[in-house]
Amino acid sequence: MAGDNNSESRELDPALTLPAAHDTRAELLAAMPEIDDSTPLAAELARDVRRRIELEGRTLPRPEQTRVITVANQKGGVGKTTTTVNLAAALARSGLHVLVIDNDPQGNASTALGVDHRAGTPSIYEVLIEDAPIAEIVQQCPDIDSLWCVPATIDLSGAEIELVSVVSRETRLRRALDAYMAQLEREGKPPLDYIFVDCPPSLGLLTVNAFVVGREVLIPIQCEYYALEGLTQLLKTIGLIQSHLNPELHVSTILLTMYDARTNLAQQVASEVREHFAAQTLRTTVPRSVRISEAPSYGQTVVTYDPSSSGALAYLEAARELSERGPVTAGADRAVQEEQVS
Ligand code: ADP
Ligand code: MG
């Protein structure tokens, strides 16, 4: 089972970590002055410092088996790519081995991870359509050693249609990934701990390939008015994939993104989501943050661009939660899927 802490053997990048001893952490926290809410800005800063002390240098548990997490929501702009790259970076920063598969023709995840994805760069397109091995395509991210990316270029925009006439069109990605993991093992290289697949905003063949590849689906939900619309369709699609192509597929995680605690609407959406998906929804919510939206223009995740910003802290906390609680089992969401959110 995932969640066992056997990560002591992992080497941490000393530049990125502070001493992590429990005593040090406790001492630092105890030394913090108490600040009440009469000075809101100071109180917020103090909260962020506490969160940083809690998170810095923490080693996250290494899952026993590779966890493959497909990040999907057919709505655009809900935070799929932002969530993919920042969770991946947060986990990799603690020494885990993480692969991001950019499965969206927009190539936004490739941009945020700083990997080359100009037209003509070998990419996920060649993997899906031309049977290219992932090993020949994958690129190491410049900022974090244990983070890799299979980039997407504009070529992928034709793949949805080209896939229709290709043999075993739904399982192309799975085969390529199985072959890659077997190759890593053969070559004595460390196994991947996490694989994230970033999906386009549709439920076409690219997303179907991503649903066949692993067990877990992570759905980012933006806390706004139409948030739950479309969720029924998404759950139905996941149910179909479950019955025909991948029995183990389930919604393991829901993350509330762009959350503005000051608005009633965000609070309502959040409580509705928590009611329907109690087991899956992470306690951590990701606030709206300028730093999060700026980071991709520097070819970075917010976790590397401004690690002490509230946006980075939220993703670091979400990554910690995701890894420490392990994968929520397939049964937990069945009841919810049967109930059908509308
Ligand atoms: P998707 O992949 O679902 O289409 P993105 O992750 O690309 O969504 O996010 C859509 C836009 O919102 C991007 O410009 C991104 O930078 C921005 N964004 C995402 N999350 C946040 C956040 N928490 N705060 C501010 N901007 C955000
Ligand atoms: Mg995206």
Task: Note down, in words, how this protein is organized.
May play a role in septum formation. This is Sporulation initiation inhibitor protein Soj. Belongs to the ParA family. Residues 67-250 form the AAA domain. The chain is of the alpha/beta class. It folds into two domains: 12-58, no CATH class; 64-341, P-loop containing nucleotide triphosphate hydrolases (Rossmann fold, 3-Layer(aba) Sandwich). It contains 14 helices and eight strands. It has helices at residues 22-31, 40-55, 80-93, 108-112, 124-130, 159-162, 172-186, 205-213, 231-244, 264-276, 290-294, 302-305, 310-325, 334-339, and strands spanning 67-71, 98-102, 139-140, 147-150, 194-198, 216-222, 250-259, 281-287. Strands 3-4-2-5-1-6-7-8 form an eight-stranded mixed sheet, with helices on both faces. β3 and β4 form a beta hairpin. The protein is globular and about 65 Å long. It starts with 21 loop residues before the first helix and ends with a helix. The chain binds adenosine-5'-diphosphate and magnesium ion. Magnesium ion is lined by residues 80-81, 104, 108.
Structural class: alpha/beta
SSE topology string: HHEHEHHEEHHEHEHEHEHHHH
Shape: globular
Largest sheet: 8 strands, mixed
**Weakly predicted, low-confidence segments:** 1-19, 333-342
Residues in helices, as a percent range: 40-55%
Separate helix tally: 14
Looking at the overall shape, the CATH architecture of the largest domain is: 3-Layer(aba) Sandwich
Q: What would CATH call the class of the largest domain?
A: Alpha Beta
Averaged pLDDT: 88
Strand content: 5-15%
Distance between the termini: 33 Å
Counting DSSP E segments of at least 2 residues, the number of strands comes to 8
Identify every distinct bound molecule in the structure, by name, code or SMILES: adenosine-5'-diphosphate, magnesium ion
* CATH-defined superfamily of the largest domain: P-loop containing nucleotide triphosphate hydrolases
Rounded Rg: 20 Å
Total count of domains: 2
By CATH, the topology of the largest domain is Rossmann fold
| Strand order in the largest sheet | 3-4-2-5-1-6-7-8
